[in-house]
Amino acid sequence: MRVEQLGEGEPNFAVVGSIHGDEPCGAHAIETLLDADLSIDRPVKFIIANERALDHNVRYTETDLNRVFPGDPDADAYETRLAHELLKEIRGCTTLSLHSTQSYSHPFAIVDETGPLAETICPHLSIDVLVETGGFVKNTLVGYVDVVEVECGMQGSKQATENAIELIREFLGATGVLSGPVETETSTVPVYQLQRQIPKDPESSYAVHVDNFERVDAGAPYATSDETEIRAEEPFYPVLMSSQGYERQLGYAADRSGTL
Ligand SMILES: [Zn+2]
């Protein structure tokens, strides 16, 4: 884990990149901004989290870091110990954590639930939508600190890194970390709430026939497993849905729960 602080004093803000080692956009964006000589009014921490997994271009080396929070300093698995270390670094910090996906090319944000944090930060970010996990995905970072996670674009793409740089700047602007004139452009953000996982049999091959965040009607075929069509039992909005992203799930089914 690489930790760099800008400014004097105990930071109340942090930016975390590459919790997943095959999502280099966060690390690259942080390196770019550390070289950019940012002019700041308030101290901030930049953290490149899973350097070991980054070196091998894998999601994790022993266990998924974003499924083992709060971690344990005495655990056998490297990422479980790292989760504990990372939480120690960012406790008390309003945090932006950068990810990327195999399912959606535009940036979107993920929070535990909509509240003052999301309301303060998210309208300033260049995001399409906000997703509320509602505690649905267990032991992820969003359950343990005030964090907005952003999915910056497609894994490994140059665009994801460019988006990550922009999102960090917007976050630092919204929190008053960056000094000087800050763009005040805000936008309305639609909010989706996760309802359930859409399971996947790791032995079968899948094709997904729907787009993320676009409503699937009851009865509509949304995927094919081997030769069999899978139809929606009830209407839903697909989130993080792709044939390749996860081993045991296609993604999530969400409801549209309002706007921010
Ligand atoms: Zn990730």
UniProtKB/TrEMBL annotation:
Gene3D superfamilies: Zn peptidases (3.40.630.10). Residues 11-91 form the Succinylglutamate desuccinylase/Aspartoacylase catalytic domain. InterPro entries: AspA/AstE_fam, AstE_AspA_cat. Pfam families: AstE_AspA_cat. Keywords: Hydrolase, Metal-binding, Zinc. GO terms for molecular function: hydrolase activity, acting on ester bonds; metal ion binding. This is Succinylglutamate desuccinylase. It comes from Halocatena pleomorpha.
